[in-house]
Amino acid sequence: MCGTEKARVVKSSSSSAGLDHSETRENGTTLSSHSVINLDHGDPTMFEAYWQRMGDKCTVVIPGSQSLSYFSNMKNLCWFLEPELEESIKRVHHVVGNAVTKDHHVVVGTGSTQLFQAALYALSPSDALEPISVVCAIPYYSSYAAVTDFLRSGLYKWGGDAHAFDKDGAYIELITSPNNPDGNTRDAIVKRGGGKLVHDLAYYWPQFTPITKPADHDIMLFTVSKSTGHAGSRIGWALVKDKDVAKKMTKFIELNTIGVSKESQLRAAKVLGVIADSCQSCDTPDSDNVFEYGKLIMSERWNKLRDVVGQSDMFSLPEYAKEYCNFMGKFTESYPAFAWMKCNRNIEDCAELLRGQKIITRSGERFGADSKHVRVSMVSKDEEFNLFIERLLAIQETSNEYHI
Amino acid sequence: MCGTEKARVVKSSSSSAGLDHSETRENGTTLSSHSVINLDHGDPTMFEAYWQRMGDKCTVVIPGSQSLSYFSNMKNLCWFLEPELEESIKRVHHVVGNAVTKDHHVVVGTGSTQLFQAALYALSPSDALEPISVVCAIPYYSSYAAVTDFLRSGLYKWGGDAHAFDKDGAYIELITSPNNPDGNTRDAIVKRGGGKLVHDLAYYWPQFTPITKPADHDIMLFTVSKSTGHAGSRIGWALVKDKDVAKKMTKFIELNTIGVSKESQLRAAKVLGVIADSCQSCDTPDSDNVFEYGKLIMSERWNKLRDVVGQSDMFSLPEYAKEYCNFMGKFTESYPAFAWMKCNRNIEDCAELLRGQKIITRSGERFGADSKHVRVSMVSKDEEFNLFIERLLAIQETSNEYHI
Question: Of these four, A154, A390, B190, B260, which has the most CB atoms within 10 Å of its CB?
């Protein structure tokens, strides 16, 4: 089995936005005009080129005798949290300025999805006669409803659109900001007594949105999947103000998975540490910085997409106001990780239309919205994104010819 | 952050059973006669010395650009399972002879605890009016009840002792063999129509018990935590006969944590692969083999424990019959990962008695049994085990003096 890891090192792909149909994909196949492009998931493979350029800076070496124990630090409230990861998390939030860590407990999870469930468990009253409602404004992240309800918990239950929520008593409101799928900045909607808020800030990073202030909420969820692109690591973290809530979230993870992979934690600690170093090493961020790099790619992609979409009235995209980004030190635009695209004219099923052109997207219906909308991943590899743009252009040209 | 991993490499500890009170523990403190010894959890730190001796054989090197994607193999039923891990799992079962992998699907989980929940989810009827009962014969693993019930699922519910189960209709029976806490080999108890069985075979490895035949059940759960000692990796796997059950277990893990740490999978693949190699490299296993090593340490510890316990009638231990172990090629005894110890005479609370001597164990009540029993971890580090033996001897000597 020696050399397994090296054999899996992904082949270099261009970090430029140049189109190369003959490039070999990770699964060994080659993208061609017949290939199906899957932009359904937000698989952040866009970041691969950046980490390849970084070479050995973030390589981790783990000897066979390391991290055998279930425990990382028995004195910590979150006993399975590696101290290096906690330190890196605090450092990166400090240099990016996107969240207050002071007076918050750090709870690590197997991705932020596990932490979302841990938060529901921690916030649900244990003595209630019926499950607490979990709500979120439409359009909401498509997994929230399924993850809330798949075990038919007696503690919590999906309550749907926050705008339509009219029950009395306790509730949990999810606030995703910037929002998945539409990229908008969000605040709480229900604003009633008995409300407990969970802020999902997976996309509150400078490559996607201006960092206007350090977020300072009761429960904030983050993940490396979208901040650094390491989705395969399954590492998320929660910043939690209330000690008892943090304890109960830790208890959930203990019962659910008896902690979180030490290997992934050590790697995330290294990656976040290197990022924090790179942000601190000069007064102004440069393109060696993952956020600056990410923003450059995202802006190029969004500009291309807006160019193509602007060539007809067939599709439309949300607009985002420029805001001052404290991290970048200038006014910047939002370049969300997903495009929330709408089909105009008489097209009722946008996902179906795109599927006909071998582009897989996620229908707006999955987000509690309508089928005229789709969510399109903007964080795929270059070759997939460019093929998407090429096909979108072709769809519009064909439709203009036939006046669809 | 560079060098973080090396700094964490655990200091060498003796693999012999020699007592050394001044040895430094992982958390930087020193074990002394005042130290509390925690043998409550089955933290398998005993294996550290072995993996240190193996040097770089199982070291993994993971570059920053590797495994960014959520996906491992989109063509596999379990799309987040690393192909190398699947191969290593099959190889190690083949050389050890403890389970049939042919005609089984491999589903990887964040430890076998997650897979246990995935199995409950997959086996629960989705259209039942009330939750299916989950039962296990007393004494049963202390976490089963809590993990089954903590979310108050409408799909499944803890039903307690399998011997006392008298409900009609469908049920799920857990069969832990060898059993945690008492080390006994087990079969199904209820044996009625509508029963669905989950075999937890976490301890069916040659260091703990004779391997009498390859297990061949519908759902079999394994974990590296006890087989190789890598509890911190949180890697378990299920061997599942029915394709739809395997698919539904995969769905559970998708909803619960969107897959399993790639870093941990790659490391487990390496460790299990090296083990399979070492078992195949010579006709008879030698002490370079983790199972032979583990059995040697376990037998030394059990012999010491039986010696001490045999010096009075204060405590008693289960006896295990010798059986022919196909892996070792000879008759061997069971040396379970836990000692299921009983206090005799008029002592009603064994855990309390031991706690008074700074020995933390898990009370029999937690396993559905009585407080005269305790479960004691036999897989801790040498210095902890030896201090336990020393204190047990002192308790017996004192009690004999005072005729307790």
Answer: B260
